[in-house]
Amino acid sequence: MSEVRAQTAQDVVFLRIPAKAEWVVVARLALATVASRSDFPIEAIEDIKLAVAEACTNAIAQGDAAGQIEISCSIEQAALRVHVRAPSGAVAGDHRRADGASSGLGLFLIRSLMDTVEFDADASHGMDLVMVKRLSN
Amino acid sequence: MSVGNMDIKVSEREVGKAHVIDVGGEIDVYTSPKVKDVVSGLIDRGTYQLVINLEQVRYIDSTGLGVLIGGLKRVREHGGTVNLVCTNPQIRKIFDITGLVKIFGIFDTEAAALKALS
Fold it and tell me: Across all residues in chain A, what is the average pLDDT?
């Protein structure tokens, strides 16, 4: 997967949260603020909030509870590019429900709400998800 | 029964032969277990006709949708149903893109959701 920190980015926001459910709201609200600063319309901001939350939830449910989730976002060519990375403990697939049933709903939502999504996950490397929302949408 | 904290408020009340669950706030990976507790508690007590009022919900993610789907599956095993009240356009959009509009009865008012149960 390509490095998210593009050479052309003027402003990049980094955030690292504990891989725990109670901290997902921090990522969600931070990304909403970044998107708002970047003049995204309200509906697109809501899409971005949900997409980043789903990415974090995916990492948490499959990952190491003591781990960290790294999020970076940048405005590149009239688009918001968000990279969510869980370096260790995250494994492939979407998150599991409390009743143990696996569901692809989170990843489906991300792919539906964002313009492009690159998802890569395995047990040895963790999870990498890069998603882009274009300003024109 | 009522459960509340800074992110979510969940309460339930009896209306005729049905129960209405009022949810307010944000349903996410952290708060959805609180919604699940109330839904499961009612079903465990034999309540299979439910209206879940989402009018005061500002946000829902896939874990919240999972709770609603799980509740619907359980009540259907007993011939029951779950109707939703939802007027928030962003949340209705999530139900649209996930196809859940075809599974749940989704109504603009609680009265309409209750009427559709009978």
Answer: 82
